[in-house]
Design a protein that fits this description.
elongated; transmembrane helix; 5 helices; Pectate Lyase C-like; five-stranded parallel sheet; Pentapeptide repeat-containing protein; about 425 residues; 5peptide_repeat; transmembrane; eleven-stranded parallel sheet; 23 strands; alpha/beta
């Protein structure tokens, strides 16, 4: 018979093994439950994600198809536009060729033999084609008519096609993008461009001698390196226009509206008539010696005198401009004008308003002020005393007249001193 201790040990071991088996079984069952829950959650998530992924794929595919369809529509529209433009261009080419053919009988006929009915027919044809062609072809057409002597000013005694009311806006006349070595100029001497819309057009490297722009609208037009001699700008609109590097001689700007225009690098400006014109807000810069015009400089070496009569030039700026023997008269308005780094020599101001005018770094030589209002200008009394003044208001508001035979400038200053003393 085994001892009691041995028996006890055997029972303890068997119980310990049994307990371990029970514990391992319970642990395995718990782990199975956990994994079962995880698997169920994964199944639920998978069940949810699958339709979401399918929906997302469907949406992406739909968006791509819509994008492709839109791109295809845009491409079709562009193709349609291109085809339409090509058809229109082909139609324009056909009309243009027909127009040239119809006009050839008139072009080949001597100018003096042209009848009024032929000129009216040509006018109708030209106005029709101008509404169809682009700006580049408009320039070619005008040059074609000019070269065939059908677009000259009336002074040339040639029969011309009357294009009154035609729209030549944005047309570039002449040679653009010319190199510094290339000094060619397109000759448009005597061209007739009266009563025509020329807004935002340009004339570059062009000879415009004896041309006429009477009653034309040239708002915003640019004149670059252009020669203008004997040109008629009467009653024309030149507002906001630009003149750079040009010559203007013996031209007429009667009743022209040239407000807020810009004139610079003028190398010859003389003999011009600016009567009754409006130059409000205009800037004149670097107008060189030969500025002998009614507007500025009159040189006795030129036969034609200049007229600067009844002109409105409010707030105009004259920078580096020379006035020599100029005559500014006829109730002209030069109020708020700026003269800067300029020479005014032997110039007559008669019936002129120079209120609030400013003189900066200028030289004044032997001027005459007759019935001039200088009230508010920055000319000092020492400068005023050096010139002839009659029936005029001085910068300090004093009136001076030779009738009284006294120097009212000094008396006016004295009276001012007395008032200040009191």
């Amino acid at each position: 018979m085994p001892p009691v201790n041995t028996h006890y040990r055997r029972n303890f071991r068997s119980q310990l093994v049994a307990n371990r088996r029970i514990n391992s079984t319970s642990i395995i069952e718990q782990q199975k439950k956990k994994w079962s829950i995880v698997i169920q959650v994964i199944k639920v998530i998978a069940a949810i994600l699958v339709p979401i992924m399918i929906g997302a794929f469907t949406i992406i595919q739909t968006l791509q198809e819509l994008k492709i369809a839109r791109m295809q529509r845009d491409a079709n529209k562009e193709q349609q536009v291109h085809d339409s433009l090509r058809v229109i261009q082909s139609r324009i080419d056909t009309v243009y060729d027909t127009f040239i053919g119809d006009l050839s009988t008139i072009v080949l006929k001597p100018n003096n033999n042209l009848t009024e009915s032929e000129l009216m027919f040509a006018r109708a044809k030209v106005l029709l084609i101008l509404d169809l062609i682009d700006e580049r072809r408009k320039w070619y057409l005008i040059k074609y008519l000019y070269d065939n002597q059908l677009f000259y000013a009336e002074s040339y005694n040639k029969k011309f096609i009357n294009l009154d009311g035609a729209d030549l806006s944005n047309v570039k006349f002449g040679i653009t993008n010319q190199t510094s070595q290339d000094e060619r100029k397109i000759n448009l001497t005597g061209i007739r461009l009266s009563n025509i819309y020329l807004r935002n057009s340009s004339f570059e490297n062009v000879l415009l001698n004896n041309a006429t722009f009477e009653r034309s609208n040239l708002t915003g037009t640019k004149f670059l390196k252009t020669t203008i001699q004997g040109v008629n700008f009467n009653n024309a609109t030149l507002e906001y226009s630009t003149f750079i590097g040009f010559q203007v001689q013996h031209s007429s700007f009667r009743s022209a509206q040239s407000a807020y225009s810009s004139w610079s690098s003028v190398n010859d400006f003389h003999g011009n008539d600016l009567s009754n014109s409006n130059w409000t807000g205009t800037i004149f810069c670097d107008v060189i010696d030969h500025l002998h015009t009614s507007l500025f400089l009159v040189d006795n070496s030129f036969i034609f005198t200049n007229r600067f009569e009844n002109v409105t030039m409010k707030s105009v700026s004259f920078v580096r401009v020379r006035f020599y023997r100029a005559k500014i008269h006829g109730k002209s308005d030069l109020s708020d004008v700026l003269f800067e780094e300029s020479l005014i020599c032997r110039t007559l101001f008669e019936d002129v308003c120079l209120q609030r005018s400013r003189f900066v770094k200028i030289k004044l030589v032997r001027l005459q002020f007759i019935r001039v209002n200088l009230n508010g200008s920055n000319l000092d009394m020492e400068q005023i005393n050096k010139h002839f003044i009659d029936h005029s208001y001085l910068p300090n508001g004093t009136f001076k007249s030779s009738i009284f035979g006294v120097n009212l400038i000094q008396n006016g200053a004295a009276e001012q001193d007395v008032r200040e003393t009191k």
